[in-house]
Amino acid sequence: MITYVFIALFIGLIAYFVYFQLEIADDFINNSHNARLSSFTESVVRGSILTADGDVLAETVTDSEGNETRYYPYKNLFAHVVGYSTMGTAGLEDSENYHLLSSHVNFVEKAVSDVTEEKTPGDNVVTTLDYDMQYAAYNSLGGENGAVIAIEVDTGKVLCMVSKPDYDPNNLEENWESIVEDANSESVLYNRATLGKYPPGSTFKILTALEYIREHPNDYEDYSYYCSGSISDGVNSLSCYDGEVHGTVNLEDSFAESCNTSFANIGLSLNLTKYKKTCEELLFNNSLPTNDFSAGTSSFSLDSSSGTSVIMATAIGQGETLVSPLHMAMIISAIANDGVLMEPYLVDHIENANGDVVSEESPTKYGSLMTSEESSILKQYMSSVVQSGTGTKLKDLSYDAYGKTGTAEYSDSGDSHAWFVGFAHQEGKSDIAIAVVVEGAGLGSSYAVPIAKDVFNAYYN
User: Fold this and answer.
1) Distance between CA atoms of 395 and 409, rounded to whole angstroms?
2) How far apart are CA 413 and CA 460, in angstroms?
């Protein structure tokens, strides 16, 4: 009996060893708490980080005396997504630390380096990032704070990721003291695209509409409501933007015109348990499946004990609901991809200093967030937003655009963030999903839509 136990333990140990080597060895070695990583710098020159087209985003420059400096040619442009490797690590400099400090040059080159006591060049990380889209997003956001993220829907490749306020990683070390002493230092270093948590405003009507369709699969097209400009539960009232009266609207009209009172009415009719279940199926209150970067968790707290005023507010994207731009882009990506979500990722492949591929990433299917029939309905509604609703600035272009605007209030004085989430389609190219949030700007149709347009143009034109 004891012999069998030892055999079982031995087999288990071997199985775990194989699993460790194949699945988690890199993550374990790349852990920021692993002191061995710092020793790699003694024999390896940190590799470069590149765009998908080969533009250098980060590289190590060595002077005549052998002093190494990490250099970021585009300064603030890729600050949050690329990150930094001084004063700690962040962004890709952190998540790809192990690969950047590994060297896969050939045996002869390594042997020569050993004899001459010179460092070997580290591997390069080739990302999925598109320079033109990144520049368009960064430039269009301008001096406003906020975030922009775009994803290729059929693969999950992250094509651009911008967060403001930002910083120049070239000057981070010399400015570090002033940054950490500044009360807003976290704001500067914080990647709003992946970690930011915002009230979603009317972009959340996508989820409310989906839940209504799920509860009324055979008669959702019969929905009708008369909008008088406001709705009340007897104690609290809620209005459409600027008190606009939309008149009689169906579900598609309510969506396209972003009618608050109609969606508040819909919210009051929903089964709250099912509503929460749908939101959690679309990854609220769950960790987001991302391949090689960290992401925040969005929150949805409505339940059967919630009062009518909270229900009405939640149904239009206010209340206590919070979401990241990344999360909204993922939801849109699934809608554009017939309900199927591909896991977002930033690293396309690792190559050695000679350009030979060491390892490659491949698209990973997370699963279906909704049926293809449900995604088709939402696509139609999002098309109506562009054709006749609040997103007409994206109408009649070289590509077909779909989307939802949002104006998300975050203070008692009515201050609001501008949102746009959507995707675009053009024959011969991949569909691109996008999420834009402009902090404190106001109307999504006025401030967020033009940014999305600039990013789409950079890709399709």
Assistant:
1) 26
2) 39
Judged by phi (left if over 0) then psi (alpha if -120 to 50, else beta), residue 280 lies in alpha
d(CA 292, CA 364): 12
pLDDT above 90 for 454 = yes
Work out the angle between the directed axes of helices 205-215 and 260-269 (0-180°, nearest 10): 40
Residue 158 has pLDDT above 80, yes or no: yes
The whole-angstrom separation of Cα 177 and Cα 37 is 25
Q: What is the dihedral of CA 71, 73, 79, 81, to 10 degrees?
A: -90
Do the beta carbons of residue 84 and residue 69 sit within 8 Å?
A: no
CA atoms within 13 A on the CB side of 340: 11
Q: How far apart are the C-alpha atoms of 451 and 298, rounded to whole Å?
A: 23
pLDDT digits (tens, 9 = 90+) for 90-105: 999 999 999 999 988 7
At 31 the pLDDT is: 52
CA angle 409/412/418 to nearest 5° reads 20
Q: Is the peptide bond before 165 cis (omega within 30 degrees of 0)?
A: yes
Closest CA to 364 of 381, 392, 345, 384: 345
